[in-house]
Every structure is written in C-alpha cells, then in structure tokens.
Amino acid sequence: MRSTRSRKALTATAALALTFTMAACGAGNEGGDSSSGEGGDASSAAGTIKGAGASSMEKAQNEWIAKFTEEAPDATVEYAPDGSGTGREKFINGAVNFAGTDSAMDDEEIASAKEKGCTGETIQFPVYVSPIAVAYNLKDVEDLNLSAPVIADIFSGKIKKWNDPKIAADNKGVDLPDTKITPVNRSDESGTSKNFSAYLSEAAADNWKHEPEDVWPIKGGEAAKGTSGVVDTIGAGEGNIGYADASQIGDLKAAKIKAGDEFIEYSPDAAAKILESAKRVDESSKTNYAVELDRGNAGEGVYPVVLVSYAVACSDYEDKEVANTVKSYLEYAVSEDGQKASAEAAGSAPLSEAATKNATDALGQIKTD
Questions:
Q1: 1 to each of 4, 5, 113, 312, how far by Cα in Å?
Q2: 260 and 166, same structural domain?
Q3: What is Dmax (Cα atoms) for the chain?
Q4: pLDDT tens digits, 199-233
Q5: pTM value surpassing 0.85
Q6: What ranges does the record list as Low complexity composition bias (predicted)?
Q7: Looking at the structure, do residues 112 and 92 belong to the same domain, yes or no?
Q8: What is the rounded (10 degree) CA torsion for 8, 350, 130, 84?
C-alpha cells in the first residue's frame, strides 16, 4: 500500500541532511555554536514563554518542548497550534513571545510588530521543512498520479468526478470510480493553504488564477479548521481530497505528484531537493532569512509541493529571562538534536549546516543582558 510505503520513506530519509544553499550572513552578536549537536545552553533557561502558530509543525513543537524542558526544568514552553495567521497576529500584538508560521512575515507585518509587540527587530528563519501531501479517500484506489493542472482543476471545481478523462489519462490501468470529488481546504488562515496555492499558481498558471494567500480563495468544497480538521474531514468521506502536512495524514493515501516527466512520491528527501534553488528574500539582512522557492520548475526527483515553516522571534524583550529562554529554546529547535527529534516525530527534513548557521546567527541578535 502507498501509505505504508510512504511511512517507510519518511523514516528512511528523515536522517538525510537538507541541502539548503542560502548564503550565510554574519550577525553582530554571535548565538549558539552552529556546529553544536545540542544547541544553546538550556541550563539557564527559566520562566514561561508562550508561542502560537502553524498547526503543521505541532508534532515538532511538542517534541522540541518535551526534549528542551528535560534539559531546562525551570522553563515552561507553551505552543498553541492556532494556525499561521493567528500565530503571526498574536506575535505582532505581543500576545506571544514567539510564533511558528508556514508563511514568512512580510514587510507590513514586520513594521506592525515594531509598533506593537516587538519594539526591536523581528527575527525569522526556516525551522521546519516538510512535504505537503495531496491526500485522498478512495478505498479501491491504492496508487494515484496527479499533475498540477489536474489538481488545480479539482480544487477549483472544474473536475467533478474521479473517472474524469483528465485524471484517467495519467492513471492507465487504474479503475477510477464514478464518484463525486469533494475538495477539502483549510477554513482558517493557513500558511499550508498559501504554500499549496503557490505551488498551483506556479506549476499550473493557466489553470489556477488565484494569488497565494493564507485564506483559501474558493468556496464550494468542504472547509475544516487546522491540519487535523482537514485530515479528519478527508477521512470521513469517500471521494474526498485535500492538502496537509505529510507528517500528519496518518493512514490516508497520498497522490504522486508530477514533476518534469515523472510522478514523485512524497518524502523528506524529495521535498528537500526543491530548496537547492531557493534564494533569500533579503540577502543583506541579519534577521530576515525568508526564502523564495521555485515550485514551477522542479527538477528530476523533486517533490514540488513543499512546506517551509518559520520561527519568528524578537531581538529585544523587556523581560531578559524571557529573552534568554526564547533564544535557548529556538537554538535547541535548530540544533542537530532538535532537528533529529523533529525528523523522528514528524518526518521533517533536518536543516543543513548552512541553514542552521543562518538560524543561529539570527538568534544571536536576541539581547539577553
């Protein structure tokens, strides 16, 4: 079965380092040692810090919190998987000390945060990389191939039945049922929605005319809150199809996605390859490590539907105990141990040495004294 094969692929490839060719940028203050397996010094972390954001990285955050607080028993870390949009909003308003988001903060959001919750500089960097699965519920179809134009037509409502000729053309020999297709999307503001829509707009521009946004642009299917809500809704109805972080689809089956001339099964390794051509949005910044992906020109062996999630923090906190604990916690998250924990718990692709250095350089901007 495909789902079994994918779980094996996730386990087998999770230990492979992510080749992330962003140029490293030096920071004014040095953070933790980017070559360290254990991250920053957690022993001095204390007090409570709060975070909120992407539900896609909920498993990773839970694992990081568990492992970090083993080493820092005087610290409490809370993370609410409210969705990327809510996480950014809470950070901007100073309701949380850090955020997780599947969409990087834009210039307007960063400026707003400086006026409200983060009087210093907003720091953001990739912390979690994972494929987005196109999961479906067809009990008698174990393997399914889908191209970007077909996926776009499914989610825009142009393709309404599973035995549509456009689907059948890429699935020779597969007995596709005359079953209604019900697309499932996120009801809340979601970076997963934005990343998925960005893939469609880049890889199927003639079929998908919607700008990538955190709010899903189309009505008519079924909407569910959070990653778990989407997964549950897909599983609840024959003929349903949706998108979700691959680590959280459980026993649902997922389509192979066309890239170039082949159909690619998701795996951390295949997803990581798309980042080889990623470029930083602002090469000169010491705090903003957001990247741009080229989803429309995925090369051989590349799984093109990818989620890059960011950690967001502030360079200057009023409470230095909070500053120290935020810095220590996020240093752990990007450390070798933290990324290994995420890979084992959520099937994510560990960050490369270069990406880890970028993160620790950014975290070095946090003032702790």
A1: 5, 6, 47, 38
A2: yes
A3: 66
A4: 999 999 999 999 999 999 998 899 999 999 999 99
A5: no
A6: 27-47
A7: yes
A8: 140
The amino acid at 350 = P
Query: With the CA atoms of 119, 287, 302 and 84 taken in that order, what torsion angle do they form, in degrees rounded to the nearest 10?
Result: -10
165 and 213 inside one domain: yes
Tell me: the pLDDT tens digits for 288-329? 999 888 888 877 888 999 988 999 999 999 999 999 999 999
Number of domains in the chain: 2
- The tokens describing 273, both together, are 């390859």
List CB contacts of 87: < 8 A, sequence separation 6 or more. Answer: 51, 52, 53, 54, 80, 96, 99, 100, 101, 312
The beta-strand segments (E) located in the chain are 47-53, 75-80, 98-101, 122-136, 145-146, 182-186, 222-224, 240-245, 253-254, 256-259, 262-264, 279-280, 291-292, 306-314
- Produce one character per residue of 109-119: b if its CB has 16 or more CB atoms within 10 Å, e if not: bbebbeeebbe
